[in-house]
Amino acid sequence: MRKPDPNMGKDRVINNKIKLRKGLWSPEEDEKLMKYMLTNGQGCWSDIARNAGLQRCGKSCRLRWINYLRPDLKRGAFCPQEEQLIIHLHSILGNRWSQIATRLPGRTDNEIKNFWNSTLKKRLKNNTCTFSPPNNSDSSEPRDVVGGIFPVHDHDMMTLCMDSTCSSSTSMPPMVTGNQFDPFPVLNNRYDMTGTACLFDVPTCLTQGAMGEAFYGDFGILEPGKIGLEGDFSLPPLESRSIEESNAVNNSIEMKSNNNHYNNTCLSNTDQSYKVGDMFGLENHHWQGENLRMGEWDLEGLMDNISSFTFLDFHVE
DNA sequence: AAACTTTACAACCGCTCAATC
DNA sequence: GGATTGAGCGGTTGTAAAGTT
């Protein structure tokens, strides 16, 4: 894409030290690194940089290898199926690009991140729906929906956009019942506290859409039963925490049942203690009675369902 | 055709975490 | 237990290429 800066790659000697090169990699550097990696394999990156005769820091070599030179990289445009999968995974995992990348063979976290930021995010944003407030809502009005994604305007973060598919579902959770509008949609919008695209929780989507039409186009639907849950549910945000970390903070996460109030809607990313009102009047064992701990929701099980994206011949770890 | 704007993505930066000393 | 080092991650930047005016 970009041509290497003719001056950028030149070694510069400052204070008798060869200054490490920065910027775009030249084909020669690529060749050196590639050759070295193929003959010696991966090791200490700073050693690799030195031994391969590159005036690059190990970090730079690592990045170049991982994001560009690795032989198993797919490269090229993302196919629609991959797009869908990214959207799906992002709705579950948030900005955990590396985790998303592990589920997209041949794609790197950087690639996916760039694709998301430059293309998908914008596309979702542009597909702003035309949701009207409950009082004057027009259910016949078409809604812009792309593959189960319900973008919102930046200025309207708290406005939940409903797909007619969802709103016509007979298995509608209390969030939307007929013209009833969830006053606290953010609880069901696991993504984007910063105001770009806004996605439903995948499980929420499922509860709304899976019973009727498939939410994920040709890839089939994710059935709550398959992901270790028997009914409606929602996921707390995962941003800025690994799954392991999330499990570690199990005890700080309270999801208390409270039949008549959607109380406490604070989902600040920095506040890991969420009290979630009884969004759905659930009776399944995950929601009954006492606190639901985060570890009880089966993220791995959820991720297992990626296997329903049959276009990919891989299995989720 | 030139100037300007937008898009796409490679690469860098800063941070965290884990291993080692 | 603290310091150091390396790996890895996510956010951000820089810029070539493409598109538009």
From TrEMBL:
Compartments reported by the entry: Nucleus
GO cellular component, as recorded: nucleus
Domain of life of the organism encoding this protein: Eukaryota
GO biological process, one term: positive regulation of DNA-templated transcription
PROSITE patterns the record matches: HTH_MYB, MYB_LIKE
Keyword Nucleus belongs to the record: yes
UniProt keywords, alphabetically: Activator, DNA-binding, Nucleus, Repeat, Transcription, Transcription regulation
Any Pfam family: Myb_DNA-binding
Residues annotated as domain Myb-like: 17-69, 70-120
SMART domains named in the record: SANT
Domain HTH myb-type: residue ranges: 17-69, 70-124
MF terms (GO), sorted A to Z: double-stranded DNA binding; sequence-specific DNA binding
PANTHER family documented for this protein: MYB DOMAIN PROTEIN 55, TRANSCRIPTION FACTOR MYB83-LIKE
Entry protein name: Transcription factor MYB83-like
Organism field: Durio zibethinus
